[in-house]
Each structure stands twice: as C-alpha cells, then as structure tokens.
Amino acid sequence: MKKPFSLQPIRELAKRQSDDAAATLGRLRGAEHKTRQTLEALREYRNEYQARFEQALMNGISPGELNNYRAFLAKLDRAVEEQQSLVEQSEVRSETGLQQWQVQSRKVKSFDVLAAREDEKHRKEESRQEQRILDEYSASRNGKQHD
User: Residue 112, exposed/middle/buried by CB under 10 A (0-12, 13-18, 19+)?
Assistant: First the structure.
C-alpha cells in the first residue's frame, strides 16, 4: 500500500500561497495597467490643450486668457508628473508581486520534485517486494519439482 507524501500538508500550503501570490500579481498588474491608461489619457489631454493654446495664441488672446492657459497647462504638467510617479510605484509593486509569485512557485516545484522522488522510491520498493515474492514462489516451485 502506498504511503501518502509525508510533506503533503506543507505542499498544499505552498500551493495555496502560490495561488494567492498569482492572484495578487494579477491584481497588481491590472492596477498598473489602469495607472498607465490614466497617464496616457492625461498626456493626450495635455497635448490637446497645448494645441488649443497654440491655436488661441495665433488667433490672439488677452493677457488674462494667456495666464489661464499657462496656469492650466502647469496643472496638467503636475498631474502628468504625479501620474508618472504612480505608474513607477505600480511597476515596483508589480515587480515585487512577480518575485513573490516566483518564490512561491519554486517552493511548489520543489515539493513536487520531492513527491516524485518519494513516489519513485515507493515504486522501486514495491517492485523489489514483488520480485522477491516471485523469486520465492519460483524457488519453492523448483524445490517441489526436484523432490
């Protein structure tokens, strides 16, 4: 009868931790994607607003409108910088999540290797026992034939 893998509870825990790390990594990458999308949207809006500003300059604007355009462009530039910072932070979190998942995944693979080795050991033991039984049976039959 085959014995269960002696480290099975730890193996199952490692598998759950690996699954949790994979789910966390998925969430982190999703959040990173959203921060990138927001950054791109801000950049697009800033470029559009810059184009409107340049068009207004060509058409002629008052000093008050000029100040309003410049002030709003400055706010957009700050928003782009802040969003870029959020993207970078999100990238770091995603990279950390990837590394944690890789560590957990390696643990699971290590336990899988140990389990495979233990299974192979049990198969060899069973094979030797079967061979021993066959040898004994064969020897006893041969001994009866010579009598």
Answer: middle
Q: What is the DSSP string of the chain?
A: -PPPPTTHHHHHHHHHHHHHHHHHHHHHHHHHHHHHHHHHHHHHHHHHHHHHHHHHHHH---HHHHHHHHHHHHHHHHHHHHHHHHHHHHHHHHHHHHHHHHHHHHHHHHHHHHHHHHHHHHHHHHHHHHHHHHHHHHHHHHHHHH-
Read off the pLDDT of residues 73-117 as tens digits, 9 standing for 90 and up. 999 999 999 999 999 999 999 999 999 999 999 999 998 898 888
% the chain with pLDDT above 70? 93
Interval 130-140: pLDDT, tens: 889 888 888 88
- The answer to whether 5 and 115 are in contact (CB under 8 A) is yes
The structure tokens listed for 101 are: 């998942």
